[in-house]
Amino acid sequence: MHASVDIEALNQQIYIDSAFIEELNNETSKVIVGQKYMIERLLLGLLAKGHILLEGLPGLAKTLAIKTLSNAVDAKFSRIQFTPDLLPADIIGTMIYNPSKNDFTVRKGPIFANFILADEINRAPAKVQSALLESMQERQVTIGKETFKLEEPFLVLATQNPIEQEGTYPLPEAQTDRFMLKVKIDYPTMDEERDIIRKTISGETAQKIASVVTPAQILKARNLVTKIYMDEKIEQYILDIVFATRDPEKYGIDSLKGLINYGGSPRASINLALASKAYAFINRRGYVIPEDVRNICKDVLRHRIGISYEAEAENISQENIVDTILNAVEVP
Description:
By secondary structure, the protein is of the alpha/beta class. 47% of the residues lie in helices and 15% in strands. The chain folds into two domains: 20-216, 3-Layer(aba) Sandwich (Rossmann fold), CATH 3.40.50; 228-328, Orthogonal Bundle (Helicase, Ruva Protein, domain 3). It has helices at 2-17, 20-28, 36-48, 62-72, 88-92, 126-138, 173-176, 190-202, 215-227, 232-246, 266-282, 290-301, 309-313, 318-328, and strands at residues 52-55, 77-81, 93-98, 103-108, 115-119, 140-143, 146-149, 155-160, 181-184, 260-262, 306-307. The strands form four sheets. The protein has a five-stranded parallel β-sheet. Helix 3 (36-48) crosses helix 11 and helix 12 runs antiparallel to helix 14 (318-328). It starts with a helix and ends with a helix.
């Protein structure tokens, strides 16, 4: 009985403290038409302290979405356009010689912001990618002999363009694993696109976004997200899903034999649990239900499952594999 009383109290607290989610959604929808899925995923990353890899064609409001969100959160925004001639110092900063003082001073790079848009991350060479990934992982930057902590909340949104593969440096699997979610963005519906045309032509998309949340509120919400109740059965459900990506035959999914080269790492389990809690928070609940796990499963797993040549030949994607697993693993 004690636990249920606690859950009730927690549920009420979450319901009150998550009210700002609605304000954020209202504010961002003033500028962004549709793309609710992308905005929701950005919020998940923000609340679960994870970074996001976005894959979508040019012109689908990726830059606009993160910029709008950073304005609504009253946070500092930086956009880094990745190009083949970019250097690590262009991201993290460098030491500049000051002749009047006869010493070196630190000039901080664009990574020193709350929201970072790393545009077309696969256009830059490995050295630059690893400089970004190090700051994502360690949440600090070393310039010369000094180490600087990055200001929280710190969210990296990296975009990849799926069509132009010429002159690109694909992210190695071990590095994509550092992104909590990989989100695929689709075209808007016809009605949404009609709205986009009207808003753009009338200049409505240029309207100013009010700051409805403070970074401090986001940090408080992050703390609450970790406290959201997750039953042991849900934990087991998450483990079953991830273990089924590694050893599908144990779960009676023989059809996946030979289609998977490698399954999700322990990061997959951690991120599935964290993102499920954040999803419950966004839906103003103090506990996780199986539907939360199912909802964010593809975003957490699609970049963590390696498919074989056989799967590629049969046109079977990571999403198809996750669907098969979700249909086979018993829901608590």
